[in-house]
């Protein structure tokens, strides 16, 4: 067997081994963090719902400390949730770049992955102040708090409807296609700068494609393990299963149904 073939197989095994380890560690940390957050309890709110400790400082905790805690947990959670669907894209990138004979393929793959998760980190930085500000308003305004269950149902319903749009179909088609077709592999020669930009492009495409499912995660329970597991499964299946557009619509039916159920429940509580 040629030496380069043996080296390629070893590199591929290392790639999958590191990916599996990273997924296992991020999943374990996510579970532990969610359990810790759950142990802190939730605050009863007007309207018959409870607010997670995710958005409010605990005794002795500062706002910067809460923000840092949220962002750290967000990044680890995104790694655990997005890695299953990212690995095939990274593998295709590696296959395309390896044909050029470039060295340091492992390093370039790492740079692509860091660029990808940088996008999700930036999203988390934007989400926290909005969520914290909304939580503060809900605690100060009982009328607003009472409207939250109904608003949650409406938002989930809209997120489900987004799964049926042509916009979603185009975004999903790009995420499922080969990088050369929709994501424009970096111009050769491959280097850290082009790998970084490719990772950013992957992250942006992914965040667009996952907009509806990420909205469900934020609304239904950003630190709820059941919601995280369901969203992770939905993202992975619609990316990797045959006929992904049809799968996305089936997922949309489920999300719409959940939104209707939340609205009915909110009206009943009202």
UniProtKB/TrEMBL annotation:
Taxonomy, superkingdom: Bacteria
Keywords: Membrane, Transmembrane, Transmembrane helix
InterPro entries for this protein: PpoB2-like (IPR018688)
Parts of the chain that traverse the membrane: 63-83, 104-137, 143-162, 247-267
The name this protein goes by in its record: DUF2182 domain-containing protein
Organism: Paraburkholderia nemoris
